[in-house]
Structures are given as C-alpha cells and as structure tokens.
C-alpha cells in the first residue's frame, strides 16, 4: 500500500532527534510514518535491530503490509528462535514481557540495537514493561534511539513517560501546511448526509445527556474539597474524567470514594446507551434499555448501586423508558401496533447501496460500521433490503422482545384485551420464524452482563436463525459486485479492497481522516474511487466528533508549551531479587527496578520472588482472579507447603490494582474466599500474609523486608523444588547453553548447582569460551540493570 508525501516529511523530522515523541493528529497514519522511518533506517544498514513495542496484532498486520516486520510476540516462539531473530537484525515486534526476560537473559545484544519504536504511548501508564526495556537497554548502550508515537495528543502525560528520556516533542496536527495541502483534493465525489432524528430520539438523547451532566455535578459536589472544574461534559464524553480525578485528587481509582466510583460507572453506562441510540433501531434500543433496567433493579440491595443515578433519578428513568417505548408501541383504543421501522441511517444506507447496484454495471462497495457487535445484524439487514424484505429483520427482533419482556411495564399490561393481542402477535411470529434449536449462554458464549454486551446472546441467535432462513451474508452474492462490511478493528486493511464506493456509518474523526488519506492516495495512483458517503446525525456521535477536534487542538497546544521532564541519574550497587519469569506479565518487576532493585529472571519451581536465601514470596493477584482460582483448585495449598519446605520466612502477597476495590469480599460471590484463606493459613502456620493495594506498594514492602538481608543465590533458588532431572530440564533456558553443547553439559554435571560452582576455566575445557563466559556470568555476576534514581 502506498503512503503520502507528508508521511515521508514527518519521518524525516523524526529522524533528526535521537529520543523523540511524535504526536500525530488522530487518523493521520502513524503506521505509515513508522513504515517509512524503518525503511529509511534499515535500507542504510539491514543488520541493525529495531525493536517494536506496544502494537496490537491488527496494527502489526497493517504495518507488515507496508514494510517487512518480523513478529515474535507469540508465546509459541521459543527463546532460541527469538535469539536468532535478534541477531539477524531488522524490524522485530515483541511483547513487553518477552523483551524484558530476553534482555535480562542476554538474548538481546544491546550493542546491536539501533533503536526502539513504541506505539500508542498514550495508553502506557507511569510504570510499564516498555519503560523497563528502554532503561535496561540504555544502561548498556546509551546510543540507542527511542521513538515514541501516538495519534492521541490529548491523552499524553509527559510526566508519565519521563523515564523514556525524550528530548523533543514533535507535533503534527492536520492543520500543518504539509498535511493540509496534500489532503485538500480527494478522489471521488464526497457527500455528507445529515439524518435528522425523530423527536422521540432527540428527547432520549437529551435525557441521557442530562444524566451525564447530573453525574458530573454530583462528582464535583461530593468532592468539593478538590478542584474538579476540568471535569465537564467534554471530559465525560471522551472518558477523560478518570485521569482528571486521579491527578487532581492524588488518589488511585481504588481509593476513590464509593459514590464517586459509582458515578464514574454510571457515566460509562450512559455513554454506551448514547451509542446504542445512534446505531440501533427503536426496537433494539427498547429491548436493550429494558434489559439494562432489569439488571439495575436486581442490584437494589447493592449499596454502591444505590448511590448512583439510576436509583436517585427514578422520575427521569421512568421518562426514559416511556419515551423509548412510545416510539415503538402505539396503543389506540385497546389496539396495539408496533413501529417496525429500521434506523434512518441503515434504511438510507440500504437505499443508496441498492441504487448504486441498479444504476452501475459493476464495482466494489465498502461499508464501514464501527461497532463489531452490530456486524451480523447490519450484514443481514443489507441482504434483506436487497432481497426486498427488510421487515424480516425487524419482525424477528420483535419476536425476541416479546419472548423476553412485557414491553408495556405500565397499567396497560393489566388490560386483558391488550395482553391477548400481544400473545397472538407472539404466536404469529413464532409460527413464522419457527426454529428447531435454541442457544443458551452457558453453552455457546458467556452469560451477557451490561458492562460487556447485554445483547450478545440475541445477536448470536439472530445470526443463526436468519442465516437458516436464507439471509446468510456469506451465501449472498450480487453479480459483478463485491460488497464488504468492516468494523473499526478491520479498517486498517480496507485499502487492499480498492473500493469504488465507500459508505461510512459513523461520523468518527479517525475514520474520516483515514478515508481522506486513502482518497488522496487514489488521486495520485488513479484508483477508481467514485463516491464517498458520510452519514451524520445531530446526536451523540456529532458531539463526540466536535469534542474530539477540540481536545486534539488543546492537546497539541499543551504539548507545544509544556516543559519536558528530565530523567534522573542512575543508582549503583543495587540489591538483588530473583523473580520468576512468569511474573513479567505484571508490572511489579518494573516497580522493583524503579526502587533500585537488580531484577534477576529465573524459572523458579518454588515461589515468585526470592528476596534472600531464607525469604520467599508467593504473589497472588486479585485483579486476574489468581487468588480465587488458586484457593478453589487447591494449588495455593500446594504452593505454600512447598515454600515452607525450603524457606525459613514465607510470605503470601495478595496484590490489588489501582482500579480494583481493596477487598476480597467486594462481591458476594467472592466473600467465601476470605473464609477459605483463613482456614488455609490456620492449617499451614508460619505463613506471613502481606496485603498490598498496588504493585508500587508491593515494591516498597519488599525493600523494607530486604533491609539488612543478604542477596539470594541464584543456583540455590533454581535447585529448590526440583529433582535432578527436573532441574536439568531447565538447562536450555540458561544463556550459553545451546542444542550444540547441552549433551556435553549433561555428561559432565549432575546438577545445576554443580554447574554454578564451576569456574569459567573449567567450563572452557568442555565448551567454547564464549558460551562458557555466558554461563559463568549468568551464575556469578547476574549482569542485570540498575534503575534511574
């Protein structure tokens, strides 16, 4: 796929500075810039190694279509294969966890690394494996270049990323002359269609916006000792309120007042309803709303839920349900009629697609629908519309609604005549859409909950049923036409389709800019793009679009005027802690590193962290449910017994995270865990229990426990819990031991401890000097890094 001239200009700008943060306007093509940058560097010397971090799999797939990238992020790729890949050089994508262990185990030669490119830097926290990696490599090779890239300047906090040591912030908004000039003229005819919402839809939208505003005002009122003026409708729509609360109140999210946290949850719930209103027909929105209210009413005994808007704005909530119901159901003199009209957006889309097919002989149509949850629904609607039977989709959804709920929820539901009509209507729809199977959430997918997808089960059922009635997207074909429907996660690959017509179902800033770039490429390459249609409505997405533009401008303005924080110098003579390799999926090893600890990775059989020859820590995370699973399976019992067998001081660390409540019994389903844990500790006396609110706090606790304690001995830690055969099976993970020399090692050493006790000269008598040096260094010097003070 081609790039534009301004991508090369930005790449050249990035090339000028050793350590820089590149901030692009959203949707302007960060992957294209990175591809141009890598090509120019690796064309000069293909043996240089560029490490790519924090890319999603979809982004790596797109980047690979632009430039050759080797992806070794999969856990299926063994350490030996990764080491060979690093030695070859080129652009290599790897996960943060894998890169940390490979650096500490010396599988990556820092002197071979030319640079590091970290994408989506706005999504990184103040402690992450990416920072760990950069600091580890820079300590060994200060000449390594670090490039940070983001398309979301509004979210970048320079203090959070100061340890990357950036010296320059490069800002490239769309208004820059080099970009604006190239994007002035597009290929194809561009058309924006503004769909006016019905009065009922507009009223629902305004009710929901009012609820957002109530949440904002209540957060400010209940935290009046703090300056929270920055929290407004814009921050709530853009989900910036969390960041403002954390920075202003100097709290982690777990320590926010209960009411504030509930109101933050309510903001997310209302935001989702606003998106549903924009993209669903009236029938689907009503069903979703009824499901959600059922979910809320079941939480009536939850003290946190009672602090939110749904239990304290009952009149507004009832009004919301009434308006949503009235735009679907009409009752006239005891007669019930349902409005089975599709959403205006999809109805207009269907008409335009059909008209395009009928008026032109051939072509390729691309429909971009941002939300994957509606993908199957939209595909079947287009099939039904082109077949001339769009009512089938809505009738089936009405059947689902009547089977699940009494949609009246008022005195009318007591009217026997009305109830009979509803019953007759349901029976008629059942006979029309009779199916011989049913899906149950427990069998095919997780039980839906509001915070994920309440409507997931019905969408899956609908897809299966309507496919069986001849509305399968995969089986539907229009002669001489190729029709594709992609969601937000698939959009980066659309350029390979070469569409003649593009229909964008979302007024989204990033999507629109990506299409503008594609249209500019089509102009230069004379691709046959004829028509681009944007659908817009004066509802939530229009608000989101406007706020996104304002936020981007504010973000660039802030980055251009603020001072870049400076990195502090290194600390020498650090204490050591041995860390199990599997722990590098958490950020605790990096927090230890930040506290001045030298982190030594190992494949441990006993414990997760060895603080001294006599102190062992087993870490359990509440966030990942590790503690609950270990308790229920009995694995924790076995782990503690094993620890007691080998160490004098055994610690069980139960660790929380900033966005989790500091309580094991936060929910009824987990409250029994406290009982099981106390019974286990009574059964195995001598285990110290350490509660930590965050990895950062855990690191501070470790420092206190290590005071005046000797450093752990790696060979001893590796040998504990292993039989001789088990220990020797770990040999391939030790630097210097390879498939070529492992048989010699096995013939001459009965245990790992024997290897560790050998001198370098003894090892050189058996294997080559370089491998001998790596093995000796691994067991004796543990050459891992220090941190920034």
From TrEMBL:
GO biological process entries: double-strand break repair via homologous recombination; nucleotide-excision repair involved in interstrand cross-link repair; resolution of meiotic recombination intermediates
Matching SMART domains: ERCC4
Molecular function GO terms recorded: damaged DNA binding; single-stranded DNA binding; single-stranded DNA endodeoxyribonuclease activity
Location (main, coarse): nucleus
Subcellular location: Nucleus
Keyword Nucleotide-binding: no
Top-level division of the source organism's lineage: Eukaryota
InterPro entries xrefs: ERCC4_domain, Restrct_endonuc-II-like, RuvA_2-like, XPF_nuclease
Coiled-coil region: none
Location of the ERCC4 domain: 576-658
Pfam families, alphabetized: ERCC4 (PF02732)
UniProt keyword annotations, A-Z: DNA damage, DNA repair, DNA-binding, Endonuclease, Hydrolase, Nuclease, Nucleus
Cellular component, GO annotation: nucleotide-excision repair factor 1 complex
Homology family: Belongs to the XPF family.
Protein name per its UniProtKB record: ERCC4 domain-containing protein
